[in-house]
Design brief:
636 residues, alpha+beta, Immunoglobulin-like, four-stranded mixed β-sheet, 12 helices, disordered C terminus
């Protein structure tokens, strides 16, 4: 995940009006006298090219003759003079009320402040040390004799949502004098941010929070505060945002640069219109430069296949192999819809295979974590033949899934529909375990959840999580129940049994002891007393079943092989002609055109399009052969 960081500042301030003089006054008498106030604190961001110590106050331009990664440093200055002025007003007001110095010094400050940083997610990478830093890492006082850690305590840094970093800092019962002694202009510095593509990159930040001043007799006032970019260096069109911008472009001219200044050629913007409330993708390029369209990263959209770039929204003028950037250029993405009902719900395949062992045991390992590639392969198996054919691919854009990997076909196909998207660094991490949030997100997309879904939080730990809407979608569809303590644990790895429970709920696949036939496959590590016992049986046996209308639980008729089940004709697709006569013995007699002779139910013509075996679309892993893969994982 590519991440950028902005600045953070915690501040406390008071503003007082005219106060009556009283020798008997106490700190509590300030309540009602001090007006609630909002303090505006000046802030500024600046940039410099690593490893130079010089920072550019305003947009930074860096030019190069060739495209190669560059590193930049960026810092933010927070001016504390406005806060110190408010403290002085507080002290003057307290003194005017006849409050002693000892009482003033006994006042304390508490609060919690949240800083949110929004940043681009492509071609701009912040070191992991910035994302995982603790204890005010990266912050320092402009005055080295001041101690910020004596005032502020960092609570958390959250980068779970792409394009956003949230830092929470608390101030807890800090003495007013301690605050005054250590509060000073502060600087946050982030070094060696890597930029890997020409373009303009802007990071913005916002700060929200409150401060409460207390005395031994109770709370005084709550003060809200805001940050404003320092006027001298702010873009007039963006005065209220804390921001920094760097432009990385191709150097113009053939001579060397002098005086430390870079020459920047004219720039043109390429805009990619993705469509349907999805944010446009923009990038800047040197005027006259040529873009190879094969090098443009294809966007993804759940339920659709990318079908090329066009110069017009009617999709009549396709973009060729290159784009020449003589002017600002807009291109449009064409999509092919594959529908929302793409998962097989009627035919109950075995979508979990299990593991072979040398000692002859049959293991399914229900309590083990499941990997990302195993999940991709499970959903590949569960695709209906038509969408599987439409989505089918043997290539993908991930940098860690090559053509020789056992799961390549499944990953490439599911990714082609936008159901799995990988990580910002271009990887898929196929052998890594998958989290509960990641799994539910893929499942929801495959079930037809669009780009914008809404739901009410049912769990105590999903509010604000990047997968919040997908988790709520799963709850609304009765797929998940969460844990007894009211949590979902979105970032916890999901087990194979939990995956089977959720998929069975998705596809309305449920069986109990009364519905299972004797031939059902069982497993040495699937105990009948386990909560997941019947979910495992359901997931690992291909079967023919009956279920009364309106009922959930099935009654199995027969356990079959997956390929045999695939060849069976769907009952609703069989045409039946019945000749009705007055002779009751003939009322069910069929004409010579009768096509429901059960002896022919599995016979297909050579052009049968419902054959789900799709021999050309399946890898050796999809034949359900229970041979062990070379990396020891289940062939899923």
């Amino acid at each position: 995940m590519k991440k950028k960081i902005s600045a953070i500042c915690m501040a406390v301030a008071l503003s007082i009006g005219a106060m009556p003089v009283s020798q008997a006054a106490s700190l509590a008498d300030l309540v009602g006298v001090l007006p609630e106030d909002t303090v505006t604190v000046g802030a500024d961001m600046s940039l410099g090219q690593s490893p130079a110590e010089t920072f550019n106050n305003g947009p930074l331009s860096i030019s190069s003759r060739t495209l190669s990664p560059i590193t930049v440093d960026y810092r933010a200055l927070i001016k504390m003079d406005a806060v110190l002025q408010q403290i002085e007003l507080y002290e003057a007001g307290a003194e005017a009320l006849g409050i002693s110095d000892e009482e003033i010094a006994a006042a304390t400050v508490s609060g919690e402040f949240v800083v949110t940083i929004n940043y681009p997610t492509q071609n701009f990478t912040v070191p992991d040390s910035v994302i995982t830093g603790t204890d005010m890492a990266g912050f320092e006082s402009v005055d080295p004799e001041k101690d910020l850690t004596a005032i502020f305590n960092e609570v958390s840094r959250d980068a779970s949502e792409a394009g956003k970093l949230t830092i929470t800092v608390g101030v807890e019962d800090v003495g007013l004098q301690t605050l005054k002694d250590n509060l000073n202009d502060m600087m946050f510095t982030c070094r060696e941010v890597e930029i890997t593509q020409f373009g303009t990159y802007t990071v913005t930040g916002e700060v929200t929070g409150t401060t409460v001043i207390s005395c031994p007799e109770g709370d005084l006032k709550t003060i809200n505060y805001q940050f404003e970019q320092i006027a001298d260096s702010a873009d007039s069109a963006n005065r209220d945002a804390i921001s920094a911008t760097v432009q990385y472009s191709r150097r113009s001219g053939g001579g060397s640069l002098t005086g430390g200044n870079s020459q920047v050629e004219n720039r043109n913007t390429l805009t990619i219109v993705v469509g349907d409330d999805i944010e446009n993708i923009t990038s800047e390029h040197t005027s006259g430069s040529t873009i190879n369209t094969s090098e443009i990263q294809k966007p993804s959209r759940a339920g659709y296949i990318f079908d090329g770039f066009y110069y017009d929204p009617e999709f009549e003028n396709p973009v060729g192999e290159t784009i020449t950037m003589n002017d600002d250029t807009t291109i449009y993405v064409k999509w092919i819809a594959v529908g929302t009902e793409i998962l097989e719900m009627e035919k109950h395949y075995a979508y979990i295979i299990g593991y072979p062992t040398d000692d002859g045991r049959e293991l399914v390992m229900p309590e083990n974590n499941i990997t990302r590639e195993e999940v991709a392969t499970i959903f590949y198996r569960l695709l209906k033949p038509e969408p599987r054919s439409a989505l089918h691919s043997l290539t993908n854009d991930f940098n860690d899934v090559d053509a020789s990997r056992w799961s390549n076909e499944a990953i490439s196909t599911v990714a082609n529909g936008g159901y799995i998207v990988g990580y910002d660094d271009g990887s898929f991490k196929p052998a890594d375990p998958i989290t509960r949030a990641e799994f539910v997100t893929i499942a929801a997309r495959l079930f037809g959840a669009g780009e914008t879904i809404e739901g009410t939080d049912q769990f105590s730990d999903v509010s604000g999580h990047w997968a919040e809407d997908y988790i709520n979608f799963a709850v609304d569809n009765d797929w998940i129940d969460g844990y007894d303590d009211g949590t979902f644990k979105p970032d916890q790895f999901i087990t194979r049994a939990e995956v089977m429970r959720i998929i069975n709920n998705m596809l309305n696949r449920h069986v109990d002891a009364e519905g299972i036939v004797d031939a059902a496959k069982t497993w040495d590590d699937n105990s009948p007393s386990a909560w997941y016992y019947y979910d495992v049986i359901e997931a690992t046996n291909a079967h023919i079943y009956m279920r009364d209308e309106g009922e959930t639980t099935e009654t199995w008729q027969e356990v079959v092989e997956n390929d045999l089940l695939a060849n069976m004709i769907d009952p609703e697709k069989v045409e039946v002609e019945v000749e009705v006569t007055t002779d009751e013995t003939d009322t069910t007699e069929e004409t010579t055109d009768q096509t429901t002779d059960e002896t022919d139910a599995t016979e297909e013509t050579t052009d049968q399009t419902t054959d789900e075996t799709n021999a050309t679309d399946e890898t050796s892993d999809q034949t359900m052969d229970e041979t062990e893969t070379t990396d020891g994982t289940e062939a899923e």
